[in-house]
Amino acid sequence: MLKNPRLFFSVLLLAMTVATAPANPFSPQDKKPSEDDQSGQLVEDQVLDEARTVGKPRSRAEFGAWQEIRETKDVRKQGRLAERFLKKFPDSGLTAWAHLAIANAAFSRNDVDRFIRHGEEALIELPDTVELLAPLANIYSESKRIERASDYAARALALLDQLEKPMGQNTVDWVAMKQGWAADAHYAMGRSILEVWTKSPNKPVSDLQEAVEHLKQTLKMNPGHGYAAFRLGFAASRTHDYDTALLAYARAAVVEGPAANSAKGHVQRLHDGLKNVPNSRWASTNANKIIRDERNRLETEMDAKEQEYSRLASEYDAAAAQKAAAPSLVE
């Protein structure tokens, strides 16, 4: 059984995100405050702006405390520094970014409640933060908060195509992060549709097709997403696509997680039914071999993903270089 690559993948993505985010909220002229007192030095608590402005510090003390957070590479230390920042500067224009840092630190510790609380605080002033919207959608879909899950997932998917790589971010990591967020958002959509379907009194099979497509997209973006594989097995079996259901359950069986043992049972039961169908492709095999073959297929797909990241990163860098080299149009 493979160690759950989805869990590792998600935590890694958030860790990489925090190393470069929150993005610098200051314009160049704000990086070196110039207000001086009579001695020629900026007073530590001197206010730069009377009114609170989102994304702006109000004093040199705030600026220095925020710089310390930005320059820290350790995710959890960033979270601790951000907590201290909020206590010291509760009216800062940078509080949303501090909540984001705390949320990401909580995510790295698998502290779901804390991630939700600070993630939601950050979204109040940073509503287009995909690295919050996608995982929150995922969490809400599993806790059956369907409306919020669907809303956040749809917002994340709409924003992904417009997302620009942060300055200094490794492009391969950036591509991987975007695909990870897309996987989370598609999963949340598919999971939400399944939840609505199970509560529907009529349960029309046609309503499940959209869930199937979202779950397939999840696995395309993240082949090791065991929960998506398990849900796809359920949805496909209800639409009578038993071949897809069998392979989806086999995928879930080789990804370590709470659904793995149950998935093995579904593989066995589906195979028992399919092997007796006339001219069945499954007649000459068995459940254990199906799972072994799926393990090999997953490893191949994960390797192919790494190559895809490198290819997409090269294409992104080439396009960015071409854009930078193009003459600008000046009136």
Low-confidence stretches: 1-43
Mean pLDDT: 86
* Rg over C-alpha atoms, rounded to the nearest angstrom: 24 Å
What order do the helices and strands follow?
A: HHHHHHHHHHHHH
**Main beta-sheet annotation:** none
End-to-end separation: 63 Å
Approximate strand percentage:
under 5%
Which overall shape is indicated by the principal axes computed on the Cα atoms?
elongated
Number of strands: 0
Which structural class should the secondary elements be placed in?
Answer: mainly alpha
| Helix run count | 13
Written overview of the protein:
The protein is an all-alpha fold and 331 residues long. Helices cover 67% and strands 0% of the residues. The protein has 13 helices and no strands. Helix 5 packs across helix 6. The longest helix has 39 residues. It is elongated and about 80 Å long.
Topology of helices and strands:
Elements lengths: L4 H16 L39 H12 L3 H14 L6 H14 L3 H14 L4 H13 L3 H15 L10 H29 L8 H14 L4 H13 L3 H13 L5 H15 L12 H39 L6
Helix pairs in contact: 1-4, 1-8, 2-3, 3-4, 4-5, 5-6, 6-7, 6-8, 7-8, 8-9, 8-13, 9-10, 10-11, 11-12, 11-13, 12-13
